[in-house]
Task: inverse folding
């Protein structure tokens, strides 16, 4: 039974994750990564498409890890290739692509299928090396930047969404400015920023939550303000282009011509 409007659905390909991000309590509460079999996922997708779903949103805590537990290799590229064939008249969207160990073979699959959205949601969390190390993200600042460049080079025009945490324990003003500059120069298409939350059961809990709530909020708002300008410019750049869209609903006189 799907709880979303009938034209889109979330397709969960795995449960939990094997990462050790210092700020996250999920693996501790729910255990390690468990991939569903590709056959099972494709069967569910076929059922969704038969039921009228147009957009299938592929999710799990860590989609780029998919298959490593079950098939001993990352299989997200092959899985997306199969899902694209199941949904030729709709489209597939990939969420939560963890950057460390990102399977580069995924990029030509996205590029070559017209019905896989040129969109990747890749949570990067920070760009400063000390914080990335403390967060146990497994990726340095240089490798993070290189990955973003590679994705953009391989799939020109790809829409990149990311998320970041501000106010992580010990985050200095300089470390925060490094993140702000990264956001400014990278120009993400979509962005979520979260104030660090000190959670019991995480490895970061033993650190001192020493950035005040006020500063966390100020940093969050400053980045989002920068992002607003970036988003506005990107949206203005789309004026006059023709895009295939899915309409969620028509509300009153919204000026929508169907
Ligand atoms: S933040 Fe995501 S990838 Fe990291 S441990 Fe939590 S669920 Fe796993």
Result:
């Amino acid at each position: 039974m799907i709880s979303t409007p009938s034209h889109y659905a979330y397709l969960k390909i795995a449960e939990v994750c094997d990462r050790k991000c210092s700020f996250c309590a999920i693996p501790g509460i729910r255990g390690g990564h468990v991939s569903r079999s590709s056959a099972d996922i494709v069967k569910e997708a076929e059922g969704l498409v038969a039921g009228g779903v147009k957009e299938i949103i592929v999710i799990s805590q860590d989609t780029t890890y998919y298959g490593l537990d079950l098939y001993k290799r990352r299989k997200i590229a092959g899985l997306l290739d199969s899902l694209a064939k199941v949904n030729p008249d709709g489209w597939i969207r990939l969420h939560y692509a963890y950057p460390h160990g990102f399977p580069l073979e995924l990029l030509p699959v996205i590029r070559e299928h017209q019905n896989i959205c040129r969109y990747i949601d890749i949570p990067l969390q920070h760009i400063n090396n000390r914080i990335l190390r403390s967060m146990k993200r497994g990726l340095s600042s240089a490798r993070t930047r290189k990955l973003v460049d590679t994705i953009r080079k391989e799939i020109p025009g790809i829409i990149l969404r990311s998320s970041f945490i501000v106010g992580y324990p010990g985050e200095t003003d300089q470390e925060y400015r490094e993140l702000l500059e990264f956001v400014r120069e990278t120009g993400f298409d979509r962005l979520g920023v979260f104030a660090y939350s000190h959670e019991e059961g995480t490895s970061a809990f033993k650190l001192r939550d020493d950035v005040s709530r006020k500063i966390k909020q100020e940093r969050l708002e400053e980045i989002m303000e920068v992002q607003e300008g970036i988003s506005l410019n990107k949206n203005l750049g789309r004026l006059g282009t023709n895009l295939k869209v899915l309409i969620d609903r028509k509300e009153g006189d919204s000026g929508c011509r169907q």
In short: The domain at 122-198+206-237 is CATH 3.30.750.200 (Transcription Regulator spoIIAA). The mean pLDDT is 94. The longest strand covers residues 159-166.
